[in-house]
Amino acid sequence: MKKRVFVTLKPGVLDPQGRTVHHALDGLGFDGVEDVRIGRLVELELADGVSDEKVAEMCEKLLANTVIENYRIEDAG
Amino acid sequence: MNTAVVTFPGSNCDRDMMVAIAEVFGKQPVQVWHRDTALPDRVDFIALPGGFSYGDYLRSGAMAANSPIMREVKAAAARGVPVLGVCNGFQVLAEAGLLPGALMRNAGQRFVCRDAQLKVENTQTRFTAGYAAGETITIPVAHHDGNYFADEATLDALEGDDRVVFRYAHATNGSRRDIAGIVNESGTVLGMMPHPERAIEAAHGGTDGRRLFESLARSLAEAA
What we know:
The complex is a heterodimer.
Chain A: E1 2-9, H1 16-27, E2 40-45, H2 52-63, E3 69-75
Antiparallel strand pairs in A: 1-2, 1-3
Chain B: E1 3-7, H1 14-25, E2 30-33, E3 45-48, H2 68-78, E4 83-86, H3 88-95, E5 102-104, E6 112-120, E7 136-143, E8 147-149, H4 152-160, E9 164-168, E10 179-183, E11 189-192, H5 210-223
Parallel strand pairs in B: 1-2, 1-3, 3-4, 4-11
Antiparallel strand pairs in B: 5-8, 6-7, 6-9, 9-10, 10-11
């Protein structure tokens, strides 16, 4: 069983990395880019029966820092 | 006086911290490894040094915050044992939940390595009693992830309780309200990005960091 955890900065938390990449995209001539936010993808290979609640606990304890980040758990087959 | 310095894989300021403590306290600290499960008996002071613990994997300080020795550090902090986290040590304390907020990538994206002027905002702590109120001191900074973030309510609470101990005199890394160092509610856990252990003797180019260790040594001696 595979799960994907997407960790993203909370809205309102400045993302200097995203801003720099945004500038770079502008510099490359890509028009219409309104905002860039960088996050992190964690792929978990899990034994059957590991609940989403357990994965959420992993996020709360380690994978995300909930002071600055949100997380979203997705099934990945 | 029993002191301890925790070394994580990737710590690189542990030796500087040990020299600073040995010089001021007059006794060699015990070097504790991240995998150790005990601190020295009757430990009076614990320091978490700077560096790049676990290669900054996941987030700076995130892995170290969950290492075995941190359970003991948390327990000691809960007993009121003073804990100082410098640079990566501050990141570890924030990740471990011993201090509020988080240290993010510097707003300018660059590693900042230079002397920083700091305003001493609270001289009533065990770490800062040797400074004059409102004094500006010079302490080196060297970090990539020193951009202090907390939500407005947390920042207001920190300010209201005089828990902002050091503030950058000039914008340095994008930190909210130019915060360079904070203490926990009881004032016994201090986290700061600048490196006081790098300003201990004249050969370092300044000695403003020495008084931090002297303040604590005096406070511990008085309490003994």
